[in-house]
What we know:
Largest interface: C-D, 80 and 81 residues
CATH topology of the largest domain in chain A: Rossmann fold
Oligomer: homotetramer
CATH architecture of the largest domain in chain A: 3-Layer(aba) Sandwich
Amino acid sequence: MVGDEFELETVEEGMDILLYLDNRRKYLVKVKKDEVFHTHKGFIRLNTIIGKPYGAKIKSSMGVDFYVLKPTLKDYLLKLARKTQIIYPKDMGLILLHSNIKPGSRVVEGGTGSGALAGMLAAYVKPDGKVYSYETREEFIKIAEKNLKRMGVLDFVLLKKADLTQGIEEKDVDVVVLDMPTPWLVVSHAYKALKNTGIFASFSPTIEQVIKTVETMKNVGFTDLETVECWVRKYQVEAGRTRPETLTIAHTGYLTFGRKILV
Amino acid sequence: MVGDEFELETVEEGMDILLYLDNRRKYLVKVKKDEVFHTHKGFIRLNTIIGKPYGAKIKSSMGVDFYVLKPTLKDYLLKLARKTQIIYPKDMGLILLHSNIKPGSRVVEGGTGSGALAGMLAAYVKPDGKVYSYETREEFIKIAEKNLKRMGVLDFVLLKKADLTQGIEEKDVDVVVLDMPTPWLVVSHAYKALKNTGIFASFSPTIEQVIKTVETMKNVGFTDLETVECWVRKYQVEAGRTRPETLTIAHTGYLTFGRKILV
Amino acid sequence: MVGDEFELETVEEGMDILLYLDNRRKYLVKVKKDEVFHTHKGFIRLNTIIGKPYGAKIKSSMGVDFYVLKPTLKDYLLKLARKTQIIYPKDMGLILLHSNIKPGSRVVEGGTGSGALAGMLAAYVKPDGKVYSYETREEFIKIAEKNLKRMGVLDFVLLKKADLTQGIEEKDVDVVVLDMPTPWLVVSHAYKALKNTGIFASFSPTIEQVIKTVETMKNVGFTDLETVECWVRKYQVEAGRTRPETLTIAHTGYLTFGRKILV
Amino acid sequence: MVGDEFELETVEEGMDILLYLDNRRKYLVKVKKDEVFHTHKGFIRLNTIIGKPYGAKIKSSMGVDFYVLKPTLKDYLLKLARKTQIIYPKDMGLILLHSNIKPGSRVVEGGTGSGALAGMLAAYVKPDGKVYSYETREEFIKIAEKNLKRMGVLDFVLLKKADLTQGIEEKDVDVVVLDMPTPWLVVSHAYKALKNTGIFASFSPTIEQVIKTVETMKNVGFTDLETVECWVRKYQVEAGRTRPETLTIAHTGYLTFGRKILV
Lengths: 263, 263, 263, 263
C-alpha cells in the first residue's frame, strides 16, 4: 500500500530484531552474519534479513511468514528479565507515572537483577538523568551490564555493588524504586537520599511485605501513601467472535508509593 | 528527622503546589501573592507558603494540617483533564510502554481536548521529541494551550486545528495515539504517516469502536495487534485492617495497539 | 405479545412487590390497602396494584412507568441487609457452591445480623434442611426474625442467642458458615460440630482475618483450603455503545473454605 | 483430635470419592472392588478404601498421603463437564442467585452437553422442582444421562432430544437458562414458556452474542436486564508469604439476565 514515500529504516548487522510469528511467539534476535535462527516453524538465515526494512515479511525454511520488527523497550523488558523477577509493562507504566520519573530524573534503584527495570528507567530519564542501580551479587551485575549495553542505555546507569539495606550513597535524588525482598529496611535510607520533593516506590509480591513497608513509611516521614495492584486483560478481537482471552496473569505484585514530607 | 543536609527546593510565587489533605482531597493551586485558598477545612493564605520548602506542613485557619507537595505529571493529568475524557495514569502508563514512546519520539496525537494527554506525552518525549496534537474545536485548543503552558511543556507540542479523519500532515512519525470517537477513520492516514517501525495506539470506551478499529488495522497493514484493558485497585494498608478499597473504577476504555508492516 | 395462554399470578394484599423503575431504582414494597408509595417520580396508590398480574406496567402520579415484579431471593438479600454487613449475590453464590449447601443441608451460621444470609441459606436448604443462626445481640435477633418471616423461610431457621466463639451446640452438621469479626476463634468449635464430610466457610473483609483463620484451620484439621475473592462487573449493552459500567464494587470480602479431615 | 463423638459416614463399594493430593490434584474416583487407581505419586488399591470414613488419610504405594473426601456438587461440576463448555462454580452461583432458582423451581435448560449444568440445577430444584434439558445431539444425551445418574439427580431432569431454537414445549416455567451458541433465537420462545414472574438467563463467551441477545430481549418483553461478568482469584495464604496466585481464568463468559414483563 504505502510506506515508500520516505526513507525506510533497515536492519544492519549486529542489530536486534523482533521476529514476529504471532502474539504468543515473538523472538528477540541479534542479527549476526552467517548465523541461522531456528524455530519450530523452520529456520531463517539471518543474512537474508540484513538490509531488509523493518516491517518486512520473510519466509522461514518451512514457508511460514515472519515479520521483522524493531524491538521496543517493552520487548526488551519482557525478553531480558529473569522470569522470576520480571516487572511487567503494566507495573512499569504505573511506576513511571506514580513516581514522576521522566527525562532528567535521578533515580536510585535496586536490586538490579537482570537489569531490565534499570534499563527501562534509564530509557525514560535520558538524556540528562541517571539511574543508580544497587546489587549485591556480582554475577547479576555482569548480566545487567550486558543487557543494558544491548538496550543502548548503559551510559545512563551506574551499576553499584552495594546493599541498599545498609544505606544509600547518593543525595538529593528524585526517586527511589525498589524491587527487593525487604523494602522496609530501605525506607529510612531512602528518606535521607530523597529530595524534599522525592518519591519512594516499591514493588512486592506478598501482602506482608506491603504492610511492613507502609507502616515503616508512615513512621519515617512519607505522605500520599498509595498501595495499588493492577491487572491487564487481553482481548481476542474479531468481528463476531470478540472476547477476552481465557487465561491471564492475576498477580505480579503490589506497588506502594509515597512522597517525602519534612518531619 | 532529616532532609536538611542538602538544599531544599522552596515554593516561589507563581508556582503550582499540590495542597494535600488526604488521599481523596488534594488541590492543585497556583501560588499567587495575597490570595487566599478556601477549603471546607478552613482557608490558607498563600503568602504564608511562599518561601516554604516542599514537604512542609502548614495549618489552615481551622487548624487542620495540609502538606505542601510539588505537583507531579500525574497530578496534572488528573487535575487538568475534563472529566469526560480523562486518560488515567494506568492507561497512560500502558500507552507509553506499548507504544514505545520515550525521549526523542515524534508523536501524532488527537483529539487534543484539555491537552492532558498531549502534555503527558510531551513530558516523556522531551527534550528532542515532539507531539503534534490535532483538534477541530477552537475552544479546546485555547484550553489546551493554557494547560500545556502550566505543565511547562508547551514548547514540545504543536497544537493544530485540523481533523485527523481527513489526513495527517506529518511524515515519518514514531507513533500515532488516538483518543477520539471514530479511530477507525484514522487508521489508513496513520499508516501513511508512520515510520516503517511505527506504532498505532487507540483508546476507546466501547467495544464496537474496538472491533471496527481492529478490523480496519488488519486490512490496512498492522501486526502484533493487541487490545487490552487495565484495572487498578487501591488498598487500605494498616496493620490488622488491611483490605482493598470498596469502590473502584471498573472501566475507562480499551487500549488497542499495532505495529506497521510493509504491505 | 403473549403470556395470556396460562393463568397469571397476581398481586394480593399483604404481598411484597418489587417496583422497578430502572436498574438503579428498584423498591421492595409491601402492598397494604389504602397506602401510598412515594417516589421522586411521583406516588403510586397501592390499591391500584392489588389484583394486577406481576409483570404489569403501572403509571405513577407523574405519569412515569414502573413495572410490578415479584421479588426474588436476591432482591431480599440486597434490600433487607444492613449496608455494612451485606453478603452480595456473587459471594452468596460462591458460598453455596463451595460449601455444597443444597436442599436438605444442616448449616450453622453466624453472626445473624439482619438475617439476610440466614434467609438465603434457608431458602436453599428447604424443605428438609435447617439453618442454626447464632447472634449475641438481642436487637438483631428481632430484626432477623422479622426479615425471615417476610422472606417466608422462618420455619427453616433456628435463631439462637449465643456466641459462636464459645462453642457450637449442634452436632453432625454439614456446613459452618461465618460472617463475623473473629472467625479463627470458631474454627475448633466448627471442627467438632461438623460431620466427617463437612465444610467450613468464612467471609472476612481484611486479609489479616484470613491469615489467622487459615493458619488455625491448618492446625485444627481441614484440607482443600481455598481462599478466593470475586468481582462482578456490569455492562451497559446497547448496539453501538456497549461497554462495562464505570464504577464497580472492588471488594466485599475474602471467602475461605476448607473440608474437615480426620486427624 | 475429634470427630469420633458421632457416627462417621464411610465409603461403600460403588460410591464416588474425591482423592485429594493438593489443590491442583484432586481425582473423582468410583470405588470398585479389586480395582487399582494409578497416580504419578503411586497407586492406591481401592479395596483399602472401602469401609474407611470420609476424611481419612491413606497412603499410596509410594508412601504419599492422599485424603478420601466426599465429592461435592462443585467437584462433579468441574470433573464431569467437557472442558470446552464448563460452567464454573462462580458462574453457576450467579445463575442460581440472579435467576431465583431454588427448591421447587421448574427450569428449562439447554444445550444439555455433558449434563453438568442440568445436574447442578437439578440438585438445587430438588425435591419438588424439575429441569427440562434440551439437546439435539443424541450422543450428548447419553453422556448426560450417565453423568446425571452418577450425581444422583436423574429423577429431577427430563432429557429431551429437541432444538430450543424451534420452540419450547413446557408452559408456565420459572426460568429458562441457556448455554448455547445462538441464545437470541430462543428469546421469544422463552418469553412464551415463562410464567409472568419468570426469568431468562444466558451464558455466552463472546460479546457479539450478548449484544444480539440483549437487543432481542428488549424487543420481546423483558426488563431488569443485566449483563455481568465475574472473576475469581485464588490466594496462597501462609503467614509471611500471602499473595494471590499468579495465573487465573480471566474469562469464561458473560451472563445475561432479564425478567418477563407483560407487553
